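Residues determine shape. We examine one folded chain.
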Amino acid sequence: MADWMPFYTGKWIYGSTCLHTTAQRGVWASLMALANETKLRDGTLRHDVGKPMARDYISAVLHIDKKELDESIEFFGKDKNADDGKGRIEIWEDGTIELTNFKKLLQRMSGGKKEKKVKTEEQRDNITVSSVALKPHLGVKGLHCADKRNLDNKTREFVEGHIVDKETGEIL
């Protein structure tokens, strides 16, 4: 099970959920937390593929009155995400509840990484990353991405993944 998930305070305070009632916001936060704790962690409230969580179960686990849960689920099904115009919740034919924007949250949790695009061999040969993280405590100043095509060969050269000043030997 997951230990944490990001909580974007600015989006919570100033985003569209600030227009909801306090109770609806509490239910939404609880549903997000439960989705983060499921085995599949794909934004669906189900025990496993083909095994949706019953609303009585969700109500009991989250300590939410069943009527309030049902009303909130209906509300969030009609409430549209600003990003894509979909309801915040979709109910599948088998009764599975899906939190439609949960996958975006997972992307943010993984550092915002989206699906990797396959680069051509020429693109891979021309772009080289020489450091991958900001680590000020180790003296690394930042991410350095070198594009060999734009390398000034008169004063700089590309050596072992780094751009090096030919005169001083300093790694740029």
Q: What stands out?
A: DSSP finds six helices and eight strands in the chain. Residues 53 and 87 are 20 Å apart (CA to CA). Confidence is low (pLDDT under 50) at residues 114-119, 123-152.
